[in-house]
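Researcher: I'm preparing a figure for a lab meeting and need a structural model of a single chain. I don't have an experimental structure, so a prediction will have to do for now. The sequence is pasted below. Please return the structure as C-alpha cells so I can convert it later.
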Amino acid sequence: MPSSSADPVSRNALVILATIAGGVVLYLLSDILTPLALALFLAVMIDGFARVLQARLPGVGGRAAVPLAVALSVVIFGGAAFFIADNATSFAAQLVTYAPKLNGLIARIAGMMGMDVPPTITQLVQRLDPASHLGQVARGLQSFASTAAFVLVYLGFILASRKGWERKAVNLFANREERQDAVAAFLRIRNGVEQYLWVQTVTGLMIAVASWLAMVAVGLDNALFWAILIFIASYIPVVGGIVAVALPPIFALVQFDGLWQAAVLFGVLQAIGMFVGNVVQPRMQGRSLNMDPIVLLLALAFWSVLWGLPGAFLSTPLTTVMMVILVQFQGTRWIAVLLSADGDPGQLKGGHAPAVHDHGPAAPGREPTPKPAPKRRTKNLRSGT
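Model: Understood. Here is the structure written out cell by cell.
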C-alpha cells in the first residue's frame, strides 16, 4: 500500500520532537552521562593506543598491550597534570611581582579610553571580591573530583567487560547480515574517533612546539607551561585557537616594558595557527571526518551548553557518533546528510573495515577476523573511502 504524502512530514516531525526530548534528557542526566561519555572516549583512546603498541613493539601480545597502554596513559596524563599544577603555583607567584607593570598597562589602556583616574590592579581585585566566589570554586573542585572518580570507575568496568561484547552482539543480532552491518557501524565510529584523536594530537603538537619556539625566541617566561596549555586547548575546536593566539601575547605585555615582543608573538602565533588550521589540518581531517565545519562549530556550542567543559572536549567525537547512528535509519538519514560535509554520510572518510567472522562483531580492542566473501554474493564492509 503506497504511503500517504503526510507520512514523511509526520516522520520528520517525530524525529525533531525526539531530538528535542533527547537533548532535554542529556541535559537532565548530565551528571551521570558525562563521566560515562568521558570513560568511553578514554576507552577508545586506550584501545587504539594498545593496538599501536601491539603493532609497533615486538614481543607485546594482545593480553599485555592493554595493561601497557593503561600504564603509559596514566604516566603521561599524571606527569602532565603534575607539571601544570606545579608551574601554575609559580606562575601565580610571579603575577604578584608583575603588579606594577599591570598597573602601568591598565593606565595605558584607560588613557586610550579617556579615563582620567584609572583603577589599580588591587582595586580591580577588590571589586571582583574573590572571597565571595570561594564557595563556587570549592564546589567546582568537588564536582571535578567526583567526576574524575566516576570516570575512572566507568573506565575500569568498560575495560574489564571487553570480552563480553562479542557474545552480547551475537545475541542481539541473530542474522549474519545484521551483525555485519552492526560491525560496520561500530568500526566507522571507532575509526572516526581514533582518526579525530590522531589529527588533533598531531596538529596540537605542531602548534605547541612551534609556539614554544616562538615564545622562547622572544624570552617569554614559562614558555613550556604555555606550550602544554596550548596543546591541551587544541582539543577544543575554535576556543583552543583563541587561547593559543591571545593569552601568551597578553602576558608578554605584562612581562616586557616594550610592545614589540607582544606584537611579534601575536603575529607569529597567528601565522602558526592559520597555517596548521587552514593547510595541515584540513588535509589530515579530510581523510578522517566527513563533517561540515559549521556543524563542528554548532556542535561545540550545543555540547558545551549541555555538558559544559567536558562537552566542549567531546563535541566532535559525539557528533561523529551521532552522524554514523543517524545514517543507519531511513527516517533520520536526512539529519546525517545535513551534518556531513559533502552530503554523502554513507561513508566516513578514513580506512576500510575488513569483513567479519560469523561469530559476531569484535569486542572493543579486538580486530574482527577477516573472512573471504562467498563467491555467489559479496558484501564489503567499509569504514571510509
